[in-house]
Amino acid sequence: MFRSSKIRESQGDRLFILGIYALLTAVLLVILLPLLYIVSSSFSSPQAVISGRVWLFPVEFTLDGYTAVFRNPQIGTGYMNSLIYAVAGTTINVVMTVMLAYPLARKTFYGRNVIMVLLIITMIFEGGLIPYYLLVKNLQLLDTRWAMILPGALAVFQVIVARTFFQTTIPDELAEAAELDGCNDIRFILRIVLPLSKPILAVMSLMYAVGHWNAYFDALIFLRSADLFPLQIVLRNILILNTIDPTMVSNVDIFLAQQGLKDLLKYSLIVVASLPVLIIYPFVQKYFVKGVMIGSLKG
Amino acid sequence: MTGITEQSIAAPRLPGRKKPVRKSAYKRIRRHWQLYAVIALPILYLITFKYVPMAGILIAFKDYNVVQGIWGSPWVGFKYFNQFFESPNFWLYINNTLGISLYGLAIGFPAPILLALALNEVGNGLFKKSVQLVTYAPYFISTVIMVSIIIMTLSPNVGIVSKFFQWMGVENTNFMGMPGLFKSIYVWSDVWQYTGYGAIIYIAALAGVNPELYESAKVDGASRIQKIINIDIPSLIPVSTILLILNLGNVMKLGFEKVYLMQNPLNLQTSEVISTYVYKVGLLSSSFSFSTAIGFFNSVINLILLVSVNYLARRLSSNSLW
Q: Distance from A9 to chain B by nearest Cα, in Å?
C-alpha cells in the first residue's frame, strides 16, 4: 500500500518538475526574446525592421544604426556627461557612505542610536519635490554639474547595508586590539576596514554607478543647458519625445536618410546606452547577490 | 566597584552626581574624536539635503513667493490643502495612484516568490544559473530605455506586438493611447523588469532552509508540492511579511519616473498620478505652495499607512518592522 502510493507520487512529482522546467523556460524566453529582438533589429536594415522581417536574427546586416549613433553629437556629449556624473558621483557616494556607516557600526561610538534614528526618519519621511528643488536653487546649484552629484551624495539604505556588513564582519575585538597597539580610528578604517570590505564596496559601487547612469529625474528638474545633459535625458528626447534636432542636419538628403534611419537609430541607441551596465554586471553578479542579502537582513 | 568609593570620597568637592556621567560621555567622545571628525561631513549632508527640505514643508501653509522667501511669505493655513481636496480631479488622482500601486502589488508581490520557489526545485545546475542571470538582467535597464522599449513594441503598425496582433487578424491599435490599458502595461512591464531581481532575496531565504527538513520529508514520502507547501512557503513568510509591509506602506509613493514617461495626451485620464501632478503643478506651472501641500498630504497618508500596516502585522504575526 505504502509502496504503491509512493510510486504514484513520484510520477506526479515527475510531471510537476516537468511543469516547473516548462514554466522556467517560458520565463527565460519571455525575457530573452525582446532583448534579442532589439539587438538584432539594431544590426538590420531599416527596411527589414519596418516591414517586420526581423524576428530573432539580423536581416540584411548593417552597422548604419551605429554609425548614426556615433555621428550624433548630442549622444556623444550625453555619454561623456553621464560618465562624469557616474564616476564622480559614485566616488563621492562610496566615500560618504563609509564615513557615515563605519562610526555607526562601532558599539563604543557615543550617540550612534540618536544618529540611527535620524537616518531612519529620512527613509520614511521626506520634504518633497518643491522644498528639495528650492534648496538646490538657494544653494546656487541649479544648472551646474554639482546638482547631479551633491543632492544624492549618499543613500541611507546603502548606509544601513554597509553598517550591517561592518558589524557582522569586523569584530570589535579587532578594533580594540588595534587601539591598544596605538592605531588610531582613521588609520584603522584605511588599513583594516576597507581592505576587509571589498565585497560590500563592490556591490555599493555597482548600485550607485547604475543609479547614476540610469537616473534622469534630477537632470530633468535641475538642468537647463543641453551641454550638461546626461545620456538619459538625450535618450528621452530622441526615443520618447521623438526629437532629432533638425539644425544638426546640414542638407535635405541627409535629413531624409535620417528619417529612414530613425527607427534603426533607436534600437542601436538602446544597445549602446545599456552596454556599460550590462558589461560590468556579470562580473559583479556574485557580489551583487551577496549585497542584496546583507541589505535584506535588516529589512 | 572602586569607582563608587572614589566618588563618595570626592563627593564634597563635586556638585551632585552629574559630573561623573558627563565626564564619561566626554571621555567616550574624546576616545573616538577622529570618528566624529569623519562622520561630521555626512551628518552635515543629512541636515542640509534631508532635514532642511523637511522644514521647507512650511511653504505648504504659506503663500510662497520668491521675493519674500520661505520665512517672509504670509501664512494661509490650510488654503492649499482645501484647494486640493475640492479640486474636481482629487479622487481621480488618488484612484489612479492607488489603482496602479495595488494592481502592481497584487501581481508584482507574488511573482518573485513563485519564481524563487520554481528555481528552488531545479537544482544548482547550468539551467538554474542561466535563468538567474537572464532574469536579473532587465533590472539594470534604465527607466527611459524600458519605457521606450514599451512604446516601440506597442507602437501602431511598426511595433512587434502590433504586428503580432495584425497577424492574428486584430485591427491596428494604438495601445499606449488607450486609457484602459495603461495600468496593465505599467504593471506587466514592471513584472518583466523586476521579478528576477525581486526573487534574489527569496532564493537566499530558501537556500537557508535546514536540509534535514527536506530529508525527513522525503522519508515520510512527501511529494514535491507537499514539500513546497509545508517547508518552502513557511520559510519565506518572515521575509515576505516584511516586504509586504514596506510595499503596502508605500502605495501612495508611486514613482514619478516611469509614469511620467509613459504619459501621453490620450491616456492622461488613467495615467495622471499624485507624483506627476505634484511635478506639473509645482515645477511646470510654478505653484510652489500648492504643489508642496499635495506632496505633504501624500507623505502623511503614506506614513499613516506604513505605521498601521506595521501595527497590524505585529498584532497578527511576529513579523514587523519595529
A: 6
